[in-house]
Amino acid sequence: QVQLVESGGGLVQAGGSLRLSCAASGRTFNNVAMGWFCQAPGKEREFVAAITWSGSNTYYADSVKGRFTISRDNAKNTVYLQMNSLKPEDTAVYYCAADPKKGIVQVPSYNYWGQGTQVTVSS
Questions:
Q1: Measured between alpha carbons, how far is 35 from 52 in angstroms, rounded to an integer?
Q2: Could you tell me if 36 and 48 are in contact, meaning their C-beta atoms sit under 8 angstroms apart?
Q3: Above pLDDT 90, what percent of the chain?
Q4: Residue 17 pLDDT more than 90?
Q5: Which residues of 81-108 are buried (b: 16+ CB within 10 A; e: fewer)?
Q6: DSSP designation for 102
């Protein structure tokens, strides 16, 4: 059974940092792209960051460029999201996703999703 399990979420003050992890099991994901998305209450799920299978290319939403960094460790079948300079508007449930079939930034492209981890940034 394929699983993506996120961890690392929590409550942090504005300006603080968190590091999210997404551990994959059930199959290897080291030959596919992976991404992070977020969903705030009452809003649609939206793209945050993505990384190609080799890690050589990364993509970011404009709102997080310069603050968030996506990375992966294929030996551990794990992808990370380092979140710095957090803002209250970053508050959301963050989801890990894997194996996009088309656009790497598009929610419907991804075949596999984690259950999400809550990130709350207080002002």
A1: 9
A2: yes
A3: 91
A4: yes
A5: bebeebeeebbbbbbbbbbbeeebbebe
A6: S
First to last CA, the chain: 40
Task: Compute φ and ψ for 109, nearest 5 degrees.
Answer: -70, -25
Radius of gyration, alpha carbons of the chain: 13
**What one-character DSSP code corresponds to residue 74?**
T
Rounded CA-CA distance 81/69 in Å is: 6
Residue 118 contacts by C-beta under 8 Å, 6 or more apart in sequence?
9, 10, 92, 93, 94
DSSP notation for 17-32: -EEEEEEEESS--TTS
Q: In the block, which residue shows the tokens 């596999």?
A: 112
Please provide the size of the chain in residues.
123
